[in-house]
Amino acid sequence: MSVEPSYRPADIGGCPDRRLLAMLVEQAPQGVVICDADGTAIYANAAMERLTGYARHEICGRNLTFLQAQDQDQEGVHKIRQAIRDGCACRTVLRNYRQDGTMFWNELSIVPLRLNGSVTHFASFHREVSNKLGESAGEARDPTMSTQTMLAYLRDDKLTGLLRRPYFEELVRRDWALAQRESRRLSFLLFDLDCFAHYRDVFGRQGADQAFRRIARVIGGCFRRASDLCGRFDEDQIAALTSGVDLAQAARLAEAVLGRVRDLALHHPRSLVSRYVTASAGVVSVVPAYDMTVERLYENALSALRDAKELGRNRVVSRECE
Questions:
Q1: Given pLDDT bands bounded at 50, 70 and 90, which one contains residue 134?
Q2: Residue 161 reports pLDDT greater than 90
Q3: Where are the domains of the chain?
Q4: What is the number of H-type helices and E-type strands within the chain?
Q5: What angle do CA 304, 308, 310 make, to 5 degrees?
Q6: Cβ pair 238, 231 in contact under 8 A
Q7: CB-side exposure of 22: number of CA atoms within 13 Å?
Q8: What CATH number was assigned to the domain covering residues 18-140?
Q9: Higher pLDDT, 100 or 289
Q10: Going by CATH, does the domain composed of 156-320 fall within 3.90.1150.10?
């Protein structure tokens, strides 16, 4: 017997019947959970019950951290906490545990829900993958896939061709450890498209994806050294890591990237900055100390990016990593 969702999504897109939206969420193939601003679950769909083995009444009223059991010291957990504090979207892969105690890899995305400009709730989307790289269970078992094809599938973002975030972060962690050992300087550059949600509203998902693909190709083309890393960091964000480049050089590189994005002249009728699509960048540079974590690099880059947005967008803010 189906259970009527305790949380009904707001009417969107002119849908004449809210019940259709409720059924859409309830019957979604991925697990869907809605939490209040404090992280307490108030709704879980049927797919979430199947994924975790917990009934929805056992999920609602609790923070989803209970799915990590005693395994709380995970990079993804810290990333989610930071995203909730910042009121921003986040995607990661976690070790979660079903009701019967079995472990599974949970690829989840969280999205802030805003009312009158303030974050009131978070929605999260969950699916089981077979490993930390985000490989879907069953996808890599196709015997027709060659080793190279499989590696490319796991490594590359399907839309942009850049590195997927889980794989990108694994490589960043590797280079971070080498830089700590060899006292090597690293610079991290984080690019975010300005007012791109408005662009998506005007041109739709397909049009936005086409534009983002072109922009990603331009940005990726600026990081061609063998030691450079470039990956999709979030929905409208691209990140890059370079070594042996100081802060001033990294900032100039970021300025050049923003110039190339502007040169694409992608018309943006609802931008608050320009007639065309622009981007902002946060740049940080550091010779990582032995006791410094890579999460601090991400935090400083996000902080610099927020400053760039607050200063009017379409600019670079750079600083040494603190």
A1: low
A2: no
A3: 18-140, 156-320
A4: 9, 10
A5: 115
A6: yes
A7: 12
A8: 3.30.450.20
A9: 289
A10: no
Summarised one tens digit per residue, pLDDT across range 138-155 is 444 444 444 444 455 456
Q: Which pLDDT value is given to residue 159? A: 86
Q: What is the pLDDT of residue 1?
A: 37
Residue-by-residue DSSP string for 120-139: EEEEEEEEEESSTT-PBTTG
Which carries the bigger pLDDT value, residue 81 or residue 259?
259
Sheet of 186-193, strands arranged across: 229-234, 237-243, 186-193, 279-286, 316-320
The amino acid sitting at 149 is: T
Distances (CA, A) of 129 to 79, 107, 151, 154, 231: 19, 6, 15, 11, 20
Stretch 78-83: mean pLDDT = 84
CA distances from 199 to 211, 236, 271 (A): 9, 11, 8
List of long-range contacts for 12-17, beta carbons under 8 Å, 24+ apart: none
